[in-house]
Design brief:
Structural class: alpha+beta
Number of helices: 5
Shape: globular
Mean pLDDT: 95
Number of domains: 3
Helix content: 10-25%
Largest sheet: 4 strands, antiparallel
Strand content: 25-35%
Length: 366
Amino acid sequence: MSADPAEESLVDGSAWAEFCETLKRAGQQVLRPETPPDPFTRAEGFRYLSRLIRAALESCVEFADPGFPVFYSLAHETIKIGADNPDNVYLNARVDGRLEYRITGSRGTVHYLGISTKAGSYGTTGCMEPTGFIDSTTLQLAPDGTFEIVLSARPRPGNWLAMAPETEMLLVRQTFLDRRREIPARLEIERVPRGAKPRPLEPVEFGAKLGSAARFGEGTARLFADGAHSFAAHPNQLPPQDQRRYQAAGGDASIHYYHGYWVLADDEALVVDVPRVPACETWNFQLNNYWMESLDYRYHRIHVNKHTAAYNPDGSATLVVAHRDPDLPNWLDTAGHRLGTMCFRWIRAHEIVHPRARVVKLPASC
């Protein structure tokens, strides 16, 4: 038998049992007394946990070696975390702030590209503090649209993305105005200097990664359940929020966020008034379920952005959330949900204009 307790926990199965116990405990986030008790919301909650564990296993186990980083997607059409943006393609890579890396790629035509480094994890510190940031407004390109970025703690000339010793994660946001027409950026990452080959599976390291995956699932579920609970205290409103809190949770430094909670009767609509649209890279508004997952944007119109919105003659915008089509511009479909959360973003806005939300009665003919 092994003399190493970590190895022994794998041999006797206790590491796996602890992993399963943490997942079981994570289920209590779905069963919190303040969460809606209806079968639909509960089912979405447990599906959400299954998605989080899928994401956690990729992040903490499969792609967790910072010596051989690989881009993967922590959020997409069927894994949704923290009001994931339907206009985004997300890429992540595991890094170590004490090492050095190089990103190479081509810019494509995607409207906005933001790349940031983060410290911490939802499964450990409960946050992802920013440690470095570069975006498409400052990225230096070659004539053919290609680029190279150095990631390091020590400043470098040219495209440099800062890290700190505690940096653990690289996060890329590609923000589209029109996914059908824009070409995504192509990115590759490698450690500098490159290592030989990854080692075979190390039992002790695997046990630690398995524990990290379980804690990520539980910690992420808790963080955004806390958020939904706080938003529910002010239903059908989009009050200004503490942006420092969003940055600590992994938000983009170029984005100003609003979050809220919506609940509508059959004959009601939520109207979001955007008094004016300042100069900005883009803006968007989206609907999420209670668990802060974007609603299924593959099949329902659940969000609108700078490009897809219809504007009023004075340049303002009026967005309408309702269970059925009121035959008005900028209608967003609740996709079978009676309640949920919502998010409004300004991206690189020259001025922050607060959106205003109000509930109105729908005409009987709608």
